[in-house]
Write a structure and sequence with these properties.
Elements (H helix, E strand, L loop, with lengths): L6 H18 L3 H7 L4 H9 L18 H12 L3 H19 L3 H12 L5 E4 L15 E5 L2 E11 L7 E8 L9 E7 L22 E11 L3 E2 L5 H38 L13 H29 L5 H26 L1 H4 L5 H9 L1 H4 L4 H12 L6
The structure holds flavin-adenine dinucleotide (FAD).
Flavin-adenine dinucleotide binds next to strand 1, strand 3, helix 12 and helix 13.
Length: 387
């Protein structure tokens, strides 16, 4: 599935693999232990020219679609899931900005992103609507040439570390429909004192997934993305597909890392009494075969979905929806089984596999959650409205 990537994308994926093995992987355990945002990793990805992966060519980017996002983020996720998440959300934010960028937005955001000088992220989720990320209670009020934004976001990846955030809002107009939202780019300086407590996650600990309280934050009208109330278009055309590609890639990367660790452990763990390795045990050979097949089956589905989406195929939607649900099933099952096969050495505080298992558990929870994705897939297959 990754052998037939277009040449340019294969080069980008190879670059990501090199940065991951030289710079990102060696510090992944430290990032997990200290819950520090992976600044060194984001710098290295910028230095390698990967931050403009989905930015348009006219802004100096690579203009890769979902397949590109998938292949590059998976390579990063195999070494450090927290970095993959920060990188993935940066790319999703970039795609949202690029979708209907004005000349001003191209100059101020997309060109610096493509040059590796600007990190962005998404601030959509709120504690009230929870997983229903397309519903927002953060209000937007127009005052002349300025929008005034009030509300509290939760779980903002790269919170307090990115240079800008795509923020979803709803017009404070009493006639506005629930779920009818507008997206704005908010610069980091406007949120300097607005961040809530540091992220101390169960997994994805380098993600800096913080909350932020926006109190009368004044945003220039030129920072509005698309039209006011563009919600459906942004949610289903850009946010959801790009987000699902980035997340599926992160979780497939974790699953492959768990498979690599398990294979290595089975080969190298010798019993002193028999001289045999774990690899000699047929039951463990079968377990490894099942894990490998589960990972390859999910990868095949997810890569196929990304190709269909990039080609604009009419039937792509249910494929896209199922990508993350499937990757989540796979990564949770594979890391769980790996924990059994790797025995006591894995079941230590802070073992590499323990990190992978904890990181994997974010997969079902992150919106759109696995339950919601299955529901949307079923509804799409039945020809029913999604919401
Ligand atoms: C590591 C991490 C990083 C994140 N990064 C970002 C980010 O960068 N930007 C951002 O905006 N958000 C981000 N999020 C937030 C995330 O996308 C969700 O919004 C959040 O995790 C929802 O949590 P909750 O407790 O409110 O879930 P709840 O809404 O309370 O849901 C709990 C569970 O109930 C089920 N459920 C809920 N609603 C439905 C439904 N309608 N149908 C069926 N089942 C349902 C699901 O199984 C769900 O897991 C991140 C979350 C995590 C954990």
């Amino acid at each position: 599935m990754d052998h037939d990537l277009p040449d340019r994308l294969r080069d980008l994926r190879d670059t990501a693999e090199r940065v991951a093995s030289e710079t990102i992987g060696p510090k992944a355990d430290e990032i997990d232990r200290s819950a520090a945002w992976p600044a060194h990793a984001m710098r290295a990805l910028a230095g390698a020219g990967l931050m403009g992966l989905v930015a348009p060519r006219t802004a100096g980017g690579e203009e890769q679609g979902m397949l590109g996002l998938l292949a590059v983020t998976e390579a990063i996720g195999r070494s450090c899931a927290s970095t993959a998440m920060c990188y993935g959300m940066h790319c999703v934010g970039t795609a949202v900005i690029a979708a209907k960028a004005t000349p001003y937005q191209r100059r101020h955001y997309l060109e610096p992103i493509a040059a590796g000088r600007h990190v962005t992220s998404l601030a959509l989720s709120e504690s009230g609507p929870g997983s229903n990320f397309y519903v927002t209670e953060t209000s937007l009020r127009r005052e002349g040439d300025i929008y005034v934004v009030d509300g509290t976001k939760q779980f903002v990846t790269s919170g307090g570390r990115a240079d800008s955030y795509v923020v979803s809002t709803i017009a404070s107009d009493p006639d506005a429909r629930a779920g009818e939202f507008s997206c704005l780019i908010v610069d980091a300086e406007q949120l300097a004192d607005a961040w809530l407590e540091p992220w101390d996650g169960f997994g994805m600990r380098g993600n800096s997934s913080r909350g932020v309280r926006l109190e009368r934050v004044r945003v220039a009208r030129q920072n509005l993305l698309g039209e006011e109330g563009d919600q459906d278009w942004y949610v289903f055309e850009i946010v959801t597909p790009y987000f699902l590609a980035a997340m599926s890639a992160t979780y497939l990367g974790i699953a492959r890392a768990a498979l690599d660790l398990t294979t290595e452990h089975l080969r190298t763990r010798h019993f002193s009494h028999s001289g045999e390795t774990l690899a000699a045990l047929p039951v463990l050979q079968q377990e490894l075969a099942d894990m490998w097949a589960a990972v390859q089956t999910s990868r095949g589905f997810v890569y196929d979905a990304a190709r269909r989406a990039d080609a604009g195929q009419a039937d792509a939607l249910p494929w896209i929806f199922m990508t993350k649900a499937l990757a989540a099933e796979t990564v949770v099952s594979v890391t769980n089984r790996a924990m059994t096969l790797c025995g006591g050495s894995a079941y230590r505080q802070n073992s590499r596999l323990a990190r992978l298992l904890r990181d994997a558990r974010a997969s079902h929870v992150m919106a759109p959650t696995s339950h919601i994705l299955r529901q949307w897939t079923g509804r799409a297959l039945l020809g029913m409205p999604l919401l």
